């Protein structure tokens, strides 16, 4: 592990998240961290931060998501730059009024006279048998709320760069972290000013025959699937769902003529539909085949490991979709 500034080190996503907050707390005295059990952190993303930055800036909160987010909205409106941890995205529903009617709308309703630099971190997704009330994927819900920006990192470098960009933004941003990826390791720049601009997608793999737009774990599943087929597969990782990098997606589909969207959210009314609609409106005459969607059926996430695996799409599902859409 290399700790020399300007170089990089190999860390997990959980460690990259911790690095991002540690650096921003050190850089900006207006940054504060609030959440339940954040002294230890259920997924270790906040571990040790209270020892470095003190209890006045890293604060454990009562078990009340509405009070926690409401407090942070007020703090952001009056000059602080709060980071809020919501342990599971399922619990965002308990703070829906504070997010949907306050955080999302205050800059608009005040005529732009205030900033609202609020960052909410939360976990989402199935795969570790935490059952229906702790396994939802909800990034598509919040990406559809005007005034809220949404990011979905898939690698340690993205986890650090996107979170730092969110903290520095003057708008409310929700960072959805897939809990099954916390132990994924990768190279992360040590540079304390390393950020990934919000609204910029990444081409994870170049190809000519089919575009796979994938998020979170499905970025890695799509890359694995691409190695198992004869077709030349281009993998696009949006990284930010709102604002969405439309041009990178459209440019890819205009080249390949085919689109697959792989995302863990439910198939109805979600990420898949938005990206397919974008391509149908912007690149319809470039399509050589109907787009395909890979996602979760419209059912609650089961607790049973066998049923959970059945509900969650696997690498072989992406392989099958690639082969079908390309005629392989």
Could you explain how this protein is built, in words?
The chain contains 12 helices and 14 strands. The chain is an alpha/beta fold. Strand 6 (149-151), helix 7 (156-168) and strand 7 form a beta-alpha-beta unit. It is 35% helix and 21% strand. The strands form 3 sheets. It has a 7-stranded mixed sheet with strand order 3-2-4-5-7-6-12, with helices on both faces. A 5-stranded mixed sheet has the order 9-11-10-13-14, sandwiched between helices. Helix 8 crosses helix 12 (315-326) and helix 9 crosses helix 10 (271-283). The protein has 2 domains: 8-189, Thiamin diphosphate (ThDP)-binding fold, Pyr/PP domains (Rossmann fold, 3-Layer(aba) Sandwich); 202-326, Rossmann fold, CATH 3.40.50.920. The longest helix is centred in the N-terminal third of the chain and has 15 residues, at 13-27. The protein has helices spanning 13-27, 49-53, 65-77, 96-103, 106-109, 139-143, 156-168, 217-226, 246-256, 271-283, 305-311, 315-326; strands at 8-12, 31-35, 58-60, 81-86, 119-124, 149-151, 173-178, 185-189, 202-205, 210-214, 233-237, 240-242, 259-266, 292-296. The termini are far apart.
